[in-house]
Amino acid sequence: MFNTVDMHCDTIMKIYQDKQEGITEGLRKNTYQIDREKLEKGEYLLQNFALFMDSQETEDPYTTCKEMIECFNNEMKENQDWLLPVTTYKEIITNQQNNKISALLTMEEGAPIEGDLKKLEEFYQAGVRMMTLTWNYPNEIGYPNAAFFDEKLQQLAVDQQGLTKQGIAVVQRMEELGMIIDVSHGSDQLVEDVLTYTSKPFVASHSNARAVCPHFRNLPDHLIKKIAERGGVIGMNYCDLFITEDGSDSLIDGLVKHIMHFRTIGGIDCIGLGSDFDGIPVTQELADASTVSKLYQALELQGFSSEELEKIFSGNVLRLYNEILH
Q1: Among 183, 180, 153, 205, which Cα is nearest to 9's?
Q2: Cα end-to-end distance, the chain, whole Å
Q3: Phi-psi sector, 15: left (phi>0), alpha (psi -120 to 50), beta
Q4: How confident is the model at residue 245 (pLDDT cuts 50, 70, 90)?
Q5: pTM attached to this predicted model
């Protein structure tokens, strides 16, 4: 038996977008990678649900994000017999004791707050407890590790910029509020700046190791080490592009390599899960949330102890949530 905690998925985006097209699918049952049956089969204790929109294809990210919160809240009401929203660590544990799965609301992309601390606080009041500072474009908060040119992801110049002056104010206010800072998608300099201007543990909710697969979305060893030393947690992303460079490894074998590398560089306490389900292409090996036991078994075969597996699948993230979410 194991409990799964996943720091990132885009399922609310899928539900919201489909509703715009007149297609009605919800968290109870759907054709996506996450629904009730899949979460229960994967023995999920908690799933983070991200609010995400492509800010360059969205006329008004602030308004769209608020509409997505309404979509999330509607899903919570319709599924309260098995899934309950949480904003504190205590609520997660209460739900676990009552055999309910917890749903934590997050934001992927800080553009909707428009660099405004009042809007940040508004989203906090609406239940958001984690925010990925950037997606793939610069915004008022800071700079990403990628930019779009001709619809292709490109690496930014070597002298990547980090947090803006307003971004520094945003991350410091997030710490004061008890909103978890998420540096996935952020430039290397942005991560360094978060380390400089904050003091609490933070996360990279869905990022892998650049030394194992040299994709700019992955973290270099020196930042893995620094995030780990701060007590932070890095969620393993199941996207094949970030796992294996040439496709020589299977998806699960590749993920195991990343996890072993993280254990070597940052220690076992910095590793979590951040599937990116419903935001990545579907693969046969880890098709959806019901299949995470395959990763568990593969790590067991590599000699990971039950204590180490408990930390990777839930313990490390719950420790960080216990520290920040009150």
Answers
A1: 205
A2: 28
A3: alpha
A4: confident
A5: 0.96
What are the DSSP calls for 164-232, one per residue?
Answer: -HHHHHHHHHHHHHT-EEE-TTB-HHHHHHHHHH--S--EETT--BTTTS--TTSBPHHHHHHHHHTT-
- Exposure string for 134-165, b = 16+ CB within 10 A, e = fewer: bbbbebbbbbbbbbeeeeeeeebeeebbbbbe
Provide the H-helix boundaries in the chain.
11-20, 36-41, 61-78, 89-97, 117-125, 165-177, 188-197, 221-229, 251-266, 293-301, 306-310, 316-324
Q: Which residues contact 307 (CB under 8 A, 6 or more apart)?
A: none
How large is the average pLDDT for residues 108-117? Answer: 98
Is residue 292 over pLDDT 50? Answer: yes
Condensed to tens digits (0 to 9), the pLDDT of residues 183-232 reads 999 999 999 999 999 999 999 999 999 999 999 899 999 999 999 999 99
